[in-house]
Design a protein that fits this description.
Structural class: alpha+beta
Number of domains: 2
Number of strands: 14
Strand order of the largest sheet: 1-11-7-8
Strand content: 15-25%
Oligomer: single chain
Largest sheet: 4 strands, antiparallel
Number of helices: 4
Length: 290
């Protein structure tokens, strides 16, 4: 892949470090021991950093963005329908007559991963015989790193995650019904920092090392298992010319890496789904700190 090698090496030779934006490794751990470490000894720090970032970005993309990524921080907002009912969607503005003489709010919205959902009614759980204190977070909650309430870190043993999106309080306390969105922290604020996706496990770090090694070989002009249809890549200006068939069928050509990709994204698609208010409503705990 001479064009790949020439573009990278010439840019590193001619541009000062301060002129280059830092590669985004997307918080994906890389296990270089997976490839024996031989290639690592031949890399400059810049080449190592770039190879890791390329591997992380490629795996994020080809797994349909279901795995990895960096933690995000959100400020939950109350539905306002009922003080203890939380939802990351607009408050219902249209009211319809209920079938049994009551009324309920109707507010369709786009939920996690582009999933259309109907925010109707004010009950926060149809299966529980007691009130459930919960916050519905956008995306897939792989883990919770921190909950800040009134500027104080909440003990992780006082909450859990159900159904990959419901932050449930378990200590008998309540989530605040509102917060001061003008304040950057302290009294009257509520922040949740969590991983919006599935955490990278040891296998993910292993294949990350394999893929990073292949990118490193391409950077050095050596033979590698990556698709050879990269026509041109330039760092400065952030331009690259790729063959339309690069990563055909969403695969890299490296067997172990492709097995991992197929485990998380067997159909080579982005996450999708459908929700029906008539579907059975169960609940399962998907994360807890202890």
């Amino acid at each position: 892949m001479p064009a790949f090698s020439t573009a990278f090496s010439s840019d590193f030779d001619t541009l000062a470090d301060g002129d280059l934006p830092a590669p985004n490794a997307l918080c994906w751990p890389i296990n270089w021991d997976a490839c024996g470490g031989d290639i690592l000894e031949t890399l400059t720090p810049e080449q190592k950093e770039l190879a890791e970032a390329l591997a992380a970005q490629t795996l994020r993309m080809l797994t349909g963005y279901r795995v990895g990524g960096c933690p995000v921080t959100v400020r939950p907002c109350n539905r306002s329908c009922v003080p203890s009912s939380w939802l990351t969607a607009p408050s219902p503005s249209i009211m319809f007559a209920g079938a049994y003489g009551g009324s309920f709010g109707f507010s369709p919205y786009v939920g996690p991963n582009g999933l259309w959902m109907n925010a109707c009614g004010c009950r926060n759980d149809g299966c529980s015989c007691v009130k459930v204190e919960e916050v519905i977070l956008p995306g897939t909650v792989g883990r919770v790193d921190e909950v800040l309430l009134d500027g104080e870190v909440l003990d992780p043993s006082t909450y859990r995650v159900d159904d990959f999106r419901k932050l449930v309080r378990t200590d008998g306390g309540s989530w605040p019904v509102c917060q001061d969105m003008n304040a950057d922290g302290g009294e009257g604020t509520f922040f949740v920092t969590y991983l919006d996706g599935n955490p990278v496990d040891g296998v993910g770090a292993y294949v990350g090392g394999l893929l990073a090694a292949e990118y490193a070989k391409a950077c050095q002009g050596a033979d590698c298992a990556l698709p050879s249809n990269v026509r041109n890549v330039t760092r400065q200006g952030i331009t690259q010319e790729l063959d339309p068939e690069m990563f055909q069928n969403g695969l890299t050509g490296e067997r172990a890496v492709d097995a991992y990709i197929r485990m998380w994204n067997p159909q080579d698609t982005l996450p999708s789904g459908i929700y029906s208010p008539d579907a059975p409503r169960g609940r399962r705990t998907t994360w807890r700190a202890v």
